[in-house]
Structure to design on (464 residues):
């Protein structure tokens, strides 16, 4: 059975998809990257905002068409959007054979076996996860599931449930497996990394987890993705400042800078606390890059509220900002509010914010011209899809995978290698050009190793 897995949404969905794929391969499935060749197509959906839902529905419709135009026999929808809207989706998409929400994924293999698409396990278990992309050098490591925050606009707790932290030794063991499979950068992901451990009785928190990953792996780059500022402690800042393998990068969602809007959003911070914390973060961790997110057009957002947001962005000068327009989500507190900001106003505010941040990012990036840094190469020189010869491509420490642009190098370097470079220019607002000074190392070939083959190792005293 040839299977294609289409993953939409966040990096946490990527982790889930890799786990589903491992289960399927254990039972004899064969992964293909072209959905037209697949007999089984699984779409891991996202239900975060309306645009994500539309993308998920479009992917399911396209997959359904491959029952006629391709080799597909079965289409399965899984993930967050299914968790919230299974009944409506089942009625609207008859071309999809069955739907499994995020809380029902233990049923995937049995349901496929019932249909005769999978048999009993026939291979050694391929591991907890099987990489589903093209280059395994950057991997995501989920350290918790769900969310306890009560943000008015967000349906994630309704889709993913309450916050549950995974055991420290399990996380470290998975990190070791990813390293053996070729990971050079591991991005820690969760709804809120800073919340890690608060639901456990062993006293372990995020700084302890970071210390364990440093002690018990050799992964060169560890990146923290998505932390509420309210939970960023002095201990966490100290370890980021002290440990060179932990990148000086924080993805810290702010959402707004008007206290009136923040209160209606049920956010834990206010403008003055965000300002104070950003200043403290940058003071404790020099050269720290901070990325944030903002919502425009939340119910009740006035021209003055939006002006406060713009003024704050200009004042604080974040490296990057991801912005999107508000859309009501069923079941959330905000859905009960009158969506009183017209769509044309939302889109205009989004455009103004995007233009402002583009200029801020350009200024901050231009200040790095002439500086030296380290780059992780993600693709060697070659020919692009248009038949053009292009140089090697990598990312600097302040460029997270897939969201912060890339760095083009002036000479070829193998994918997965690190190189010291001098930044020579900023191009297309968010990308860099750099001159290679020296190549530090070539990556070892990834190993086809399973969790059963991974030797038991000491986890140290953390979490014991």
């Amino acid at each position: 059975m040839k299977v294609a897995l289409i993953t939409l949404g966040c990096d946490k969905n990527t982790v889930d998809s890799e786990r589903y794929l491992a289960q399927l391969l254990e039972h004899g499935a064969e992964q293909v990257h072209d959905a037209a060749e697949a007999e089984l197509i699984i779409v891991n959906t996202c239900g975060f905002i309306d645009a994500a839902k539309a993308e998920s529905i479009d992917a399911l419709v396209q997959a359904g068409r491959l029952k006629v135009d391709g080799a597909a026999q079965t289409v399965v929808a899984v993930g967050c959007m299914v968790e919230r809207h299974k009944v409506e989706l089942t009625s609207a998409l008859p071309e999809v054979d069955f739907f499994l929400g995020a809380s029902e994924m233990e049923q995937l293999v049995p349901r496929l076996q019932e249909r005769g698409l999978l048999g009993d396990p026939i291979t050694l278990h391929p591991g907890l996860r099987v990489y589903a992309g093209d280059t395994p050098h950057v991997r995501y490591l989920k350290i918790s599931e769900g969310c306890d925050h009560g943000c008015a606009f967000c349906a994630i707790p309704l889709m993913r449930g309450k916050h549950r932290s995974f055991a420290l030794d399990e996380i470290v063991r998975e990190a070791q497996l990813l390293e053996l499979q070729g990971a050079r950068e591991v991005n820690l992901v969760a709804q809120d990394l800073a919340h890690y451990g608060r639901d456990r009785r062993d006293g372990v928190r995020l700084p302890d987890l970071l210390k364990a990953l440093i002690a018990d792996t050799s992964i060169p780059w560890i990146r923290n993705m998505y932390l509420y500022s309210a939970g960023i402690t002095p201990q966490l800042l100290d370890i980021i400042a002290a440990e060179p393998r932990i990148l000086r990068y924080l993805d810290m969602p702010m959402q707004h800078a008007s206290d009136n809007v923040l209160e209606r959003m049920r956010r834990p911070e206010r403008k003055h606390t965000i300002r104070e914390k950003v200043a403290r973060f940058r003071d404790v961790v020099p050269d720290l890059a901070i990325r944030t997110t903002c919502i425009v057009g939340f119910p009740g957002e006035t021209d003055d509220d939006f002006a406060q947001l713009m003024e704050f962005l200009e004042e604080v000068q974040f490296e990057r900002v991801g912005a999107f327009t508000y859309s009501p989500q069923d079941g959330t507190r905000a859905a009960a509010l009158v969506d009183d900001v017209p769509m044309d106003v939302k889109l205009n505010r989004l455009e103004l914010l995007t233009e402002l941040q583009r200029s801020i990012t350009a200024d901050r990036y231009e200040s790095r011209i002439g500086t030296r840094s380290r780059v992780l190469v993600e693709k060697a020189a070659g020919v692009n899809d248009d038949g053009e010869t292009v140089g090697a491509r990598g990312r600097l420490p302040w460029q997270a995978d897939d969201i912060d642009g890339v760095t083009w190098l002036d000479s070829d370097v193998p994918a997965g290698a690190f190189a010291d470079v001098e930044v020579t220019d900023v191009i297309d607002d968010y990308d860099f050009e750099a001159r290679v000074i020296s190549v530090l190392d070539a990556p070892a070939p990834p190993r086809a190793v399973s969790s059963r083959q991974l030797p038991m190792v000491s986890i140290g005293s953390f979490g014991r």
User: Anything to note?
Assistant: Residues 419 and 440 are 5 Å apart (CA to CA). The radius of gyration is 23 Å. Residues 372-441 form a domain with the OB fold (Dihydrolipoamide Acetyltransferase, E2P) fold (CATH 2.40.50.140). Residues 455-464 have pLDDT under 50 and may be disordered.
